[in-house]
Write a structure and sequence with these properties.
single chain; 163 residues; alpha+beta; 4 helices
Length: 163
């Protein structure tokens, strides 16, 4: 007999619901997410020289990522509003790409993976907005959680990113 799956974000009638986390223990939690903006070597040269027509794309993307993390429960319907204690967005220029990494931290009853993912996505979209006049084909790829720490389930590392 197949084991019945319990869906946590659906009530007994099948309606979407926000999970009640009030009984969970407050603990330190951290998440790391990443993604890649794919562009041209010419755009990377413009980013390095801070010479894009729209201005400082790195600064705009970094701030957009932080703002995105803070607005996650407004954008993702079933996410809990939590107190973020830290958000860091790192942008690394590569050959035809910008690697985005977001690190989110809290001490709360639920994790910060969605905040890290939203930070990466928002930073990537802001980057595309800043470079689209020069590269209309720029894309945001591979937005994913790399690791999470804390909470009841403990630490988790994305399999392909394990040492």
């Amino acid at each position: 007999m197949p084991q019945e799956k319990h869906l946590t974000h659906v009530d007994e009638t099948g309606a979407a619901r926000m999970v009640d986390v009030s009984a969970k223990t407050v603990s330190e939690r951290r998440a790391v997410a990443a993604g890649t903006v794919r562009t041209t070597p010419e755009v990377i040269a413009l980013l390095r020289a801070d010479d894009l027509p729209k201005g400082d794309a790195l600064a705009v993307s970094r701030i957009a990522g932080i703002m995105g993390a803070k607005r996650t429960p407004d954008l993702i319907p079933l996410c809990h509003p939590i107190g973020l204690h830290g958000v860091k967005v790192e942008l690394e220029l590569g050959e035809g790409m910008v690697e985005i990494t977001a690190i989110t931290k809290t001490a709360d009853r639920t994790g910060v993976e969605m905040e890290a993912l939203t930070a990466v996505a928002t930073a990537g979209l802001a980057m595309i907005d800043m470079i689209k006049a020069v590269d209309p084909a720029a894309s945001l790829d591979a937005v994913r959680v790399l690791r999470k720490e804390g909470g009841k389930t403990g630490d988790w590392v994305r399999p392909e990113d394990r040492p």
